[in-house]
Design goal:
The structure is a homodimer of 235-residue chains.
Chain A: H1 18-46, H2 52-78, H3 83-100, H4 106-128, H5 133-143, H6 148-162, H7 165-191, H8 193-199, H9 210-231
Chain lengths: 235, 235
């Protein structure tokens, strides 16, 4: 371990601890509702696809999201939590994100799927560092890319090649997506003490300190920039 | 075998026969595109659901449709047919059906899923009697009810119990669905010789005669009436 990594107290990972349990339920509930909405969004986007092959490809990706949703609700059931109750606190924020970033065409939908999902997934992966090994394994499995990335990247790059003006419009769209994602994430962080506590934590809880949160924000931004570049867009 | 069942010549079920092969490819292509659109439709409808539990239930049903879609495209690939090419002839009719029966609320969506899908499935099941055993087994497996029926029936009956006026509106909606389904099915039957040939057939091809087609139509109508009754609606 190098000197500049602060040593952290061992986190409490006991599901019999009510506040830790509440945080895990929040995490799974937020993820599950996110997957459910992402599923419906991809399914709708599939109908905007320019070719039948694209329609099928996107529909298959959508079905993958639903498999993840099922994994998450099964885990909630195993924790004896009603999945709907666990999802409910996140409905407003997730729905608001989708309402404010309703894509008006096929390419916007692809950028949203790649860039919007990407930043959300990176954020959940960061949170996964603060939970027990079983929960972490599930979260990471659910977040695994199913091919969305390659699909979006090749379609968007092709569109820019066909018409360079597309790049400017989509770059603006990408910025709007990130802005809305941050707005809604902050809202959730403020409203959900347990989930927020996982990250910032009470002393000794194993959460990150402010310096670590700052580094996390830098990592999220860097990854976002990298994704925009892969699409051929300036962040 | 009773006297009033006409004996039929043994059908030609040889996939090396170009016209039989074309008919099977048409059948699989029509089914596959139907599933792909039904998938997107159910996914959209899931967002109209009044509760999160209903949203999840419908999304899970949608994902089942996509599994069927995948089975059908795999069979097409096994026949060395491009799935998109096989689906293309049916895009216009299926899309027209959905455009003309775009549900404006949750209950209309459920009735459409149950009654619209139901009549289409009965029709495909009838066609399945005229194809080889392997194709028939696949078609019947794909058409198997995954719980759509029970889900729609209990939700619609509950809605009628809450407000009896709902029944009249939904009964009209059911009639419109059947009318549009028949219009589009006739269009496909006329345009696609191979598929139509499976049913009416050239002499000796094993297709149905006119009397049998009449009986089939009666069966389809009866089943439709039965479904409407299960929903608590007059057909």
């Amino acid at each position: 371990m190098s000197d500049d990594v602060p040593t952290r107290p061992e986190p409490h990972h006991d599901l019999s601890d009510p506040s830790y349990r509440a945080a895990v339920v929040d995490l799974l509930g937020a993820l599950a509702y996110g997957e459910l909405r992402a599923f419906a969004q991809l399914a709708k986007d599939s109908e905007l696809a320019p070719t039948l092959a694209d329609t099928s490809a996107l529909a298959i990706l959508a079905a993958h999201e639903l498999r993840n949703f099922t994994l998450l609700t099964e885990r909630l059931r195993a924790l004896e939590v009603n999945a709907e109750d666990a999802m409910q606190p996140f409905v407003e924020a997730v729905d608001a994100f989708h309402a404010r970033t309703s894509s008006s065409n096929w390419l916007e939908g692809l950028v949203k799927a790649y860039v919007g999902e990407g930043i959300a997934q990176d954020f959940y992966r960061e949170i996964a560092n603060y939970v027990d090994a079983d929960t972490k394994a599930l979260v990471l499995a659910v977040l695994e890319d199913q091919g969305q990335a390659d699909f979006a990247v090749s379609a968007v790059r092709q569109a820019i090649e066909d018409d360079a003006r597309v790049a400017g419009r989509l770059a603006l769209w990408g910025r709007r997506l990130v802005g809305e994602a941050i707005t809604q994430a902050q809202r959730v962080g403020v409203e959900r003490d347990a989930l927020g506590g996982l990250l910032v934590g009470a002393p000794g809880s194993g959460g990150a300190d402010l310096a670590e949160l700052g580094r996390m924000f830098v990592r999220l931004t860097d990854e976002h920039t990298r994704r925009m570049e892969r699409l051929g867009l300036s962040a």
